[in-house]
Amino acid sequence: MRRGDLTGALHAAVRDDVEFLFDDSVDTLDQTGHGVDVTFRGGGGRRFDMVFGADGLHSRTRHLLFGPEERFHRYLGYSFAGFTMRNTLGLSHKTVMWNTPGRAAALYAAGEDDEVHALLTFAHREPPFDAIRDPEARRDLVATVFADAGWEVPGMLAALRDADDLFFDGVSQIRMPRWSRGRAALVGDAAYAPSFLTGQGSSLALVGAYMLAGSLADRDHAAGFAAYERHTRGFVTVNQDQVGEGDAALFPTTPRALARRNDMLRDLSALPATTGRPAHSALTLPAFSRP
Ligand SMILES: Cc1cc2nc3c(=O)[nH]c(=O)nc-3n(C[C@H](O)[C@H](O)[C@H](O)COP(=O)(O)OP(=O)(O)OC[C@H]3O[C@@H](n4cnc5c(N)ncnc54)[C@H](O)[C@@H]3O)c2cc1C
């Protein structure tokens, strides 16, 4: 399922019951009164009973509540650029990938479209903070890393130069000792991003939101936030632990590891169908009663 389709389905499910404020963001949070006083960048302020930060890996809500991202950021040694480009290979419902140790280029066709998702991933020792802040620097960094690459990569680099939807970031996790402070809590990537190497980020965000809402259904914020953590943290940890630092099986950095990865991928199709669910997706969600 495409990210935009999931977002659209979630929005459609609640838009008649929930007030949405688009193109605005939280500027300050103040918990000194009996609630959370919020001011918005767009102007004005309001008091809420509780605040939930679901604003992703680089969450500003987390920064306001817990301090700088560096405290919780676990960089996994890779950076990536994602963008859409013309489907010149006529791909349909498939992903094709080119690799050398430490570099991968992938074209991903979710359906039958004139456009495909392009992904350029590469090993990079330090988090690419400069390139994250500067659009030209990120294009230059990716172009330099892939300068001598073959396959479809020259065309991908040309498309990258013109892309208006370029997304660039380090591959990172967020690990926090707790996910709430006072009447405010974090959910999804803001609290426990597992990184795309796990393929589990959307699942964790949805499971976390469900557990948070259910935990608060018949409790006050303090007991509800404690229950949310108690019942969700184990599942989050199992998922985050799928990736070891600098050891992402999908994007190996040595020729030997790359050969092993290729053998593993070849063997996948020959494996018998597994029975049961692996631990990282084996959470049975409890049923919560509506308040
Ligand atoms: C290349 C790539 C591939 C991935 N593949 C998969 C996959 O196959 N399967 C999977 O499960 N997961 C995958 N993920 C991870 C998944 O996208 C995330 O884990 C998931 O989107 C997290 O959801 P979220 O709602 O917590 O955060 P996000 O989806 O990041 O949403 C945060 C939202 O908050 C908004 N926001 C940010 N800051 C502010 C602010 N200051 N004020 C107001 N709004 C703000 C953002 O605009 C955004 O809309 C992938 C991620 C990447 C980068």
Short description:
It contains nine helices and eleven strands.
Secondary structure layout plus pairing:
Blueprint: H1 3-14, E1 26-30, E2 36-40, E3 45-48, E4 51-53, H2 60-66, E5 73-86, E6 94-100, E7 103-109, E8 115-123, H3 129-133, H4 135-145, H5 153-162, E9 167-174, E10 180-181, E11 184-186, H6 189-192, H7 201-216, H8 221-240, H9 255-268
Parallel strand pairs: 4-11
Antiparallel strand pairs: 1-2, 2-3, 5-8, 5-9, 6-7, 7-8, 10-11
The structure holds flavin-adenine dinucleotide.
Residues 3, 25, 54-56, 60, 82, 188-190, 193, 196, 199-203, 205 line the site of flavin-adenine dinucleotide.
Question: Could you explain how this protein is built, in words?
Answer:
It contains 9 helices and 11 strands. It has 291 residues and is α+β, with helices and mostly antiparallel strands. The chain folds into 2 domains: 3-71 and 175-240, FAD/NAD(P)-binding domain (3-Layer(bba) Sandwich), CATH 3.50.50; 76-172, D-Amino Acid Oxidase, Chain A, domain 2. α7 runs antiparallel to α8. The two termini are 31 Å apart. The mean pLDDT is 92. Flavin-adenine dinucleotide binds next to α6 and α7.
What would the keywords be for this entry?
single chain; 291 residues; alpha+beta; FAD/NAD(P)-binding domain; D-Amino Acid Oxidase, Chain A, domain 2; 2 domains; five-stranded antiparallel beta sheet; three-stranded antiparallel beta sheet; 34% helix; globular; binds flavin-adenine dinucleotide
Q: What's the CATH architecture name of the largest domain? A: 3-Layer(bba) Sandwich
CATH class of the largest domain: Alpha Beta
**Gyration radius from CA atoms, angstroms:** 21 Å
Shape: globular
Q: Give a quick account of the main beta sheet: strands, pairing sense, barrel closure.
A: 5 strands, antiparallel
Q: What portion of residues belong to β-strands?
A: 15-25%
Q: Please, what is the oligomeric state? A: single chain
Going across the biggest sheet, name each strand in turn: 6-7-8-5-9
Q: Give the cofactors and ligands.
A: flavin-adenine dinucleotide
Write down the domain tally: 2
Structural class: alpha+beta
Low-pLDDT stretches are none
Tally of extended strands? 11
Instruction: State the order of secondary-structure elements, H for helix, E for strand.
Output: HEEEEHEEEEHHHEEEHHHH
How far apart, in Å, are the first and last alpha carbons?
31 Å
Write out the CATH superfamily name of the largest domain: FAD/NAD(P)-binding domain
The proportion of residues forming helix, as a percent range, comes to 25-40%
Mean pLDDT value? 92
CATH topology of the largest domain: FAD/NAD(P)-binding domain
